[in-house]
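Hey team,

Filing this mostly as a record. A colleague (T.K.) asked me to run one chain through the structure pipeline before their review meeting, and I want the input and output archived in the tracker in case anyone asks later how it was produced. No errors, nothing strange. Just documentation.

Input sequence:
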Amino acid sequence: MLNQFSRTQLLLGQEGMEKLFQARVAVFGIGGVGGYTVEALARSGVGTLDLIDDDRICLTNLNRQIFATRKTVGQYKVDIAQQRILEINPKAVVHTYKTFYAPQTAELFDFSQYDYVVDAIDTVTGKLELVEQAEKAGVPIISSMGAGNKMDPTAFEVADIYETSVCPLARVMRKELKKRGIKKLKVVYSKEPPMTPIDDMAISCRTNCICPPGTARKCTQRRQVPGSNAFVPSVVGLIIAGEVVKDLTAMGGRP
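Output structure:
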């Protein structure tokens, strides 16, 4: 029967679509990268999505985040993402968590219930904890490396973490994962050297913070506010979604 996923079914077949509908994918971080991942997974027919992010949409998110519009500024990212998913696929099941993922909050999540985990957060401690929890549960995970301060969307590629180079975040992750005995991790990364953001206090979040009231973790708390654009994080998010869809349909769900 013709439906919103018919064009995808022409490529994946009925069996592939059933695997996606039965799958449960957790996306940690619903920002520039994770937002596009969520959008693509919803449009691909993934049946259950868990969205984890404690952040609210800020005016400065409009340059790159798919759920950010003038109307959604100040609202929780996971709430807006949930509304959009259900507008695309009313049969989808969406679980939202207004939670900042870190070792201190890891116990809130049962990784054994997921068929795939997407790491689109930007703290090393959170990323490492995600990888360790996924490893313990035997759940596949894909992790986004540095997407900020970069301008070439064609430079991103999929690789194992131990095959990466240049990317500063990947370098730290390699070192820390090796200490923890983690032997592999699928990542999306770029060899493009990161740019240094222009030091312009007139447009800096440090001196002109406009985070919505109630924002727990403001950009002013960062050592450096990264520059970004509309075309790099979106590409990373779509690459991740593509890998998730391909893996789920090839594996039949869990490996």
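Quick notes for T.K.: The longest strand covers residues 24-28. The two ends are 30 Å apart (CA to CA).
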